[in-house]
């Protein structure tokens, strides 16, 4: 990666995306070969700076840092001096004074990671781990990694792959980052949602839009079900959960309509019974837990590349 931060997929070229995915694959090869911990970032310090709740992203960054032998400091706004009014600037500077060189930030405000990167408050590398409804770049990278593993014929080019992103597009930073990344790699993306859960100016996105899941489902190679983000909904966006599940959930007999080769994805956490049934989440075609495992590899690659690693030659060593 050229920059010293990872703030948005829009900042990455196709080659830079492939560099992250190739690095993650090389890390997988090394760890599958039995080397669980690499000394690559020994003596370096990484901070998880989380102002919003997280299970997968926070813990997988922690696992990634530890597997590269970095020190990791975990900060959660809950239980911290943020409740006493401490600002983002003071919090970040405090953590940098403790040795932080890279900060992974999740925040409810869109643009928080960019603000931290451009403010000059800290010198650390900044990684966006989800900023409001804006972006979640490492989620999109791990999703692309997971698709690539399932469609080896599309290893460096997703042209010909049709990906459906279904549900609460409006509130989804995962959808925004995935649209940018999947179209960068050449995939055809169709957003499937009720009109109330699509952003304004959706016609300017490089995607198709459909309100009808049943008319699209047979055409998809990958279906990405999005969480209904109730915590971001002040108004009613659909008549009832039952109607939402009926029209936009991967539930009941709809599962059988998928191509046999199609994969089912979900960034998590899932609302089982709403956007996805337990049967769909746990079936043979589901790659949801693979996404989680791949998240550690992709985040190792991001830390490695931002903190001083050169691209790894094929068959090369990281140490
Ligand atoms: N996918 C994702 O960002 O999950 P968490 O909120 O658990 O980190």
Structure, briefly:
With 319 residues, this protein is an alpha/beta fold.
Overview of this protein structure:
The chain has helices spanning 14-32, 56-67, 88-97, 112-118, 137-150, 173-184, 213-216, 241-248, 278-281, 288-306, and strands at residues 45-50, 71-76, 102-107, 125-131, 162-166, 188-192, 208-210, 222-225, 263-265. It is α/β, with parallel strands linked by helices and 319 residues long. The chain folds into two domains: 9-136 and 293-312, 3-Layer(aba) Sandwich (Rossmann fold), CATH 3.40.50.1370; 137-291, 3-Layer(aba) Sandwich (Rossmann fold). The chain has a five-stranded parallel sheet, covered by helices on one side. The protein has a four-stranded parallel sheet with strand order 2-1-3-4, sandwiched between helices. The longest helix has 19 residues, at 14-32. The radius of gyration is 19 Å and the shape is globular. Bound molecules: phosphoric acid mono(formamide)ester. Phosphoric acid mono(formamide)ester is lined by residues 54-57, 130, 136, 139, 267-269.
């Amino acid at each position: 990666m050229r920059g010293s931060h990872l703030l948005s997929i829009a900042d990455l070229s196709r080659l830079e995306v492939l560099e992250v995915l190739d690095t993650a694959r090389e890390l997988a090869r090394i760890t599958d070969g039995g080397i669980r911990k690499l000394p690559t970032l020994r003596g370096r310090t990484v901070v998880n700076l989380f102002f919003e709740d997280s299970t997968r992203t926070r813990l997988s960054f922690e696992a990634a840092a530890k597997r590269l032998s970095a020190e990791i400091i975990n900060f959660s706004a809950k239980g911290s001096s943020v409740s006493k009014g401490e600002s983002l600037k003071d919090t970040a500077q405090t953590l940098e004074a403790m040795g932080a060189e890279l900060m992974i930030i999740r925040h409810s405000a869109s643009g928080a990671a960019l603000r931290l990167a451009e403010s000059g408050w800290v010198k650390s590398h900044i990684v966006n781990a989800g900023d409001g409804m804006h972006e979640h770049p490492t989620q999109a990278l791990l999703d692309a990694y997971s698709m690539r593993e399932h469609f080896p014929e599309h290893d460096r080019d997703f042209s010909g792959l049709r990906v459906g992103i279904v549900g609460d597009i409006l509130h989804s930073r995962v959808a925004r980052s995935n649209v940018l990344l999947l179209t960068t790699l050449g995939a055809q993306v169709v957003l499937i949602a009720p009109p109330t859960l699509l952003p304004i100016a959706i016609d300017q996105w490089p995607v198709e839009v459909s309100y009808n899941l049943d008319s699209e489902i047979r055409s998809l190679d990958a279906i990405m079900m999005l969480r209904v983000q109730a915590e971001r909904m002040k108004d009613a966006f659909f008549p009832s959960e039952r109607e939402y599940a009926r029209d936009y959930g991967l539930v009941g007999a709809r599962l059988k309509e998928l191509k046999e080769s199609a994969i089912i994805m979900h960034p998590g956490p899932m609302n089982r019974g709403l956007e996805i049934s337990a049967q769909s989440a746990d079936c043979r075609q589901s790659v949801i837990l693979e996404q989680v495992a791949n998240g550690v590899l992709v985040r190792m690659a991001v830390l490695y590349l931002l903190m001083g690693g050169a691209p790894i030659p094929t068959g090369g060593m990281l140490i």
